[in-house]
Amino acid sequence: MSENLQESFKEIDRDLDHSWIDLSARVRDLASGLKLKAAGSALASDADHLSQEATLLCDHLERLHADVIDLLSNLESHVSAPEPDLSSDGKPKEVDCHEVNKESIQIQRESHELRSDFKDVLKALLMWRDDPVERARDKR
Q1: Residues 6+ apart with CB under 8 A from 8
Q2: Which three-class secondary structure state does DSSP give residue 51?
Q3: Confidence tier at 1 by pLDDT (50, 70, 90)
Q4: What is the pLDDT of residues 111-128, one digit of tens each?
Q5: Distance between CA atoms of 69 and 11, rounded to whole angstroms?
Q6: Predicted TM-score (pTM) of this structure
Q7: Nearest of 109, 99, 87 to residue 134 by alpha carbon
Q8: Largest Cα–Cα separation, the chain
């Protein structure tokens, strides 16, 4: 996999990290709390406006987060399947770059799903990253 593609996936991982959704929820709660605390004061109008704007921004962030995850899922489903291994000596041929890209997208999507089986919990705790080339070879 090219360095550029690898770097792009790292950036996507950072951008799709669930901590952004957590931050969005905290900002929404803080703005809402400020609105309630400022009620009846000279700042009530400003606090209300801030709360509305924060809500719009948080809604937008959460929608973008979900849309990108959906996009990754759709991309995965549209990546064509590789041709079967036709090697006569039984040794695996070099892995097709389309197959590696498909596995990279699948890994990307899986890393943002909340699952509770033991293997996935361990991967999350250890920040384990599957290798798309290895996955592509295993599927053969």
Answers
A1: none
A2: helix
A3: very low
A4: 666 556 656 655 555 556
A5: 14
A6: 0.52
A7: 99
A8: 81
